[in-house]
Amino acid sequence: MRPTILKIFSMAITAMLMCCKEPYNPPAISQGNHFLVVDGTIISGPDSTVIKISRTRNFNDSVNSSLELQAQVFVVDPSGGTISLINQGSGRYVIDQLNLDNTKQYQLKIIAADGKEYLSDLLTVKPTPAIDSITWSQDNTGVTVYVNTHDPQNSTIYYKWDFSETWQYYTAFQTYADIEGGVPVPRFDQIYTCWLSSASTDIEVASSAKLSEDVIYRNPIQFIPQGSEKIGEKYSIYVRQFAIEQQAYEYWVNLKKNTEQLGTLFDGQPSQLNSNIHCVSTPEEPVLGFIQVSTVTKQRMFISKNDLVAWGYTPYWKECVYKGFTDPDSIKVYFPDDRPRRYVFLGTDLGTYLYTTLMCGDCRDHGGTNVKPSFWP
Fold it and tell me: CB within 10 Å: which end of the chain, N or C, has fewer?
């Protein structure tokens, strides 16, 4: 009897514990706060300034992002005059070129859709030294890309980078023909070679404050894993460099720790981020982001598959084959004009109409564009 009693007692305790469990939603994730997030750099010189504005989300929000779509964004000059940025949509506010005075101070002003006004601290234009070089090295795990720079005046000290990548790839079969109106015609746009691009998402900053000279040498900014499609044929990285203030550097270092370097016992603990943008309407309201004004220097570098040793790239298309049919009436089945196509026409051979899948015959199906970038060799 004793084992039976123990079993019943254990089941009763388990049932009681299960009944007592209640979900806990701490106030921090249920208060409905959606604070302003401002991302971008005010660029002085012949480059576009892009300011991205969004809102924070709660953990239990159903939407993936909350863009600030109807804000008004201005650069305020020392006399109080304003330069308007154009609302480009998707939370992007843009101006093609700003020629600012390095001896004067500026501010970023935002009027949100709800009427609240936000204003940055006074900002001084930071001149950015040239990038000395973009280099790379390969080991058995992949390719690391480095940036090298220095300031002969020893006055920059704090640096920030972003970059965009573009790479070339091919599909399995090449075609010079298409089907239009039920008959084969020459194809004038090639769909065999495409280019894919992506922008950097990680925070890349460095400082020479602990060095005797203002030199940044072999600072890693990107890693490409072994066998990646990015260098399956040819790869390009376009690096932009910004001089930043010490306060901005500390902000970005803390943000990097909070967003990219958490998850183990040895990582730093989350810390408060002090923005240089403030809500004028409600001073106690937090704002996320840090705005700088600087010039920008840029450099592009290419890496070819022929530069690498045993890269081991396997194309995204696998086991591609082409098929054929001989009945012309089948054209409307495989190549309809009134609905999306599933196949690519390759041509004819002795009365046989040859075709393959989109994955194997149209490089655009992989997400890239078949329009060659203007900077591509």
Answer: N
Q: Which residues of 178-202 are buried (b: 16+ CB within 10 A; e: fewer)?
A: bbeeeeeeebeeebbebbbeeebee
Proportion of the chain in helix, strand, coil states, percent, rounded to 5: 15, 40, 45
Rounded to whole angstroms, the Cα distance separating 186 from 177 reads: 4
pLDDT in tens, 2-32: 555 555 555 555 555 555 555 545 554 455 5
158 and 77, same structural domain? Answer: no
Range of the domain at 179: 131-366
Pairing of strands 92-95, 49-55: antiparallel
- Tell me the pTM: 0.87
The total domain count for the chain is 2
List helix spans (H) across 162-308.
246-260
Question: Please, are residues 109 and 117 in contact by the beta-carbon 8 Å criterion?
Answer: yes
Distance CA 289, CA 161 (A): 16
Report how far residue 198's alpha carbon sits from residue 49's, in angstroms, rounded to the nearest whole number. Answer: 19
Cα–Cα distance, 231 to 339 (Å, whole number): 35
